[in-house]
Specification:
By secondary structure, this protein is an all-alpha fold. The chain has one domain. Helix content is 74%, strand content 2%. It is built from 15 helices and two strands. It has a two-stranded antiparallel ribbon with strand order 1-2. β1 and β2 form a beta hairpin. α1 crosses α12 and α8 packs across α9. The longest helix is centred in the first third of the chain and has 32 residues.
């Protein structure tokens, strides 16, 4: 292995690690705020990639139908729970879904600039986060963590099945944001890889500013530290859950848009991608954002170099990384039974 190969593998590892870091941050965020281990995080990645590729092919109505169905299910659930007409928020979300569905029917999707296609993709996928929280987790928000995990796994299975129904078993790949690359010595850095690293770095910086300087960000931080204390101070746990799921959906959809030009994604590809982000999240104990991001970046580098040295065992090597951290957490953490 010479220096050129090391640089190429490092480039691929940093590109993958940047995506894994974003997913690790979203997993830590959702878990710390809601106690939900978001197993379907990868489905947001798949939806983002498939919707972007679908728009470039001139069709993206399947995901619009899903958004419309989720908005209708939320309104119907509110009607059943309250035994009266849904509230203004339910009507606004339903109206938003109908308006976006109608807009996608009349727009020449294939001819739109790529930035507009990306914005429409985000407009489709991001609202699904709060909708899924309201439908699946809000009614059982106070349940035991194990119950929340079971529901999360079940939701993942449902979304994977819907993804297969909507997009089919064939893979999809979108057009790159730009051609060419940046030549540094003997290595040419692909432009799409640079887009991924730059966008991920900017988003991580934006998240830092959001949590440190904005009122909503501080509310999420307070909820993650002490949910009961935050609620006593007037922070709505429902709002915190919706916001955390919305951010997770945004991060997942953006990750899908970024990696869709780099690799062919299938209806179930998101699960494996998010699982590697989960390995990074575990390194931080599902609590520390910087350590989770650093761990996820390390996962990308290990995966890249494992592909060169032992490609048949790269997945085994990556997922084995989680064992020392689990053992260390088990030996150093005081265990206590959680109230049901």
């Amino acid at each position: 292995m010479d220096s050129q190969i090391v640089l190429l593998l490092g480039q691929d590892g940093l590109t993958s690690g940047a995506i894994y870091a974003l997913l690790a941050l979203s997993i830590v965020l959702v878990f710390s705020v809601t106690r939900v281990l978001l197993v379907p995080q990868g489905e947001f990645v798949t939806f983002g990639a498939m919707a972007m590729a679908g728009m470039q092919a001139g069709h993206s109505m399947t995901l619009a139908w899903l958004l419309l169905g989720l908005a209708g299910a939320r309104a119907a659930g509110a009607l059943r729970a309250r035994r009266r007409w849904p509230g203004p928020g339910d009507w606004i979300m339903l109206g938003y879904a109908v308006a976006l569905w109608a807009l996608l029917r009349v727009l020449p999707l294939q001819a739109l600039p790529m930035v507009v296609q990306a914005l429409l993709t985000l407009a489709l996928v991001v609202p699904m986060g709060p909708l899924l929280y309201d439908i699946a987790f809000k009614p059982i928000a106070s349940a035991h963590s194990l119950v929340l995990l079971i529901v999360s796994i079940a939701l993942h299975g449902v979304l994977v099945g819907l993804s297969l129904l909507m997009f089919g078993a064939e893979g999809a790949r979108s057009e790159p944001f730009s051609d060419g690359g940046l030549e540094i010595g003997p290595v040419v850095f692909k432009s799409q890889a640079l887009w991924v690293i730059a966008a991920s770095t900017l988003l991580i910086g934006a998240l830092y500013v959001f949590f440190d300087r904005t009122l909503h960000g501080k509310a999420l931080r307070a909820t993650s530290v002490n949910r009961l204390g935050a609620e006593l101070m007037g922070i709505s746990p429902t709002f915190a859950g919706q916001l955390s799921f919305g951010l997770a959906a945004f991060i997942g959809a953006l990750s899908g848009i970024l990696i869709a030009p780099l690799t062919t994604l299938y209806f179930d590809s998101g699960f494996l991608i998010s699982l590697k982000g989960f390995v990074g999240a575990v390194t931080g104990g599902l609590l520390s954002y910087p350590i989770a991001a650093l761990g996820a970046t390390s996962v990308g580098l290990v995966e890249s170099f494992s592909t060169f040295w032992a490609s048949d065992y790269k997945e085994v090597i990556v997922f084995t990384l989680i064992l020392p951290f689990l053992l260390w957490r088990s030996l150093t953490t005081r265990h206590s039974e959680e109230d049901a």
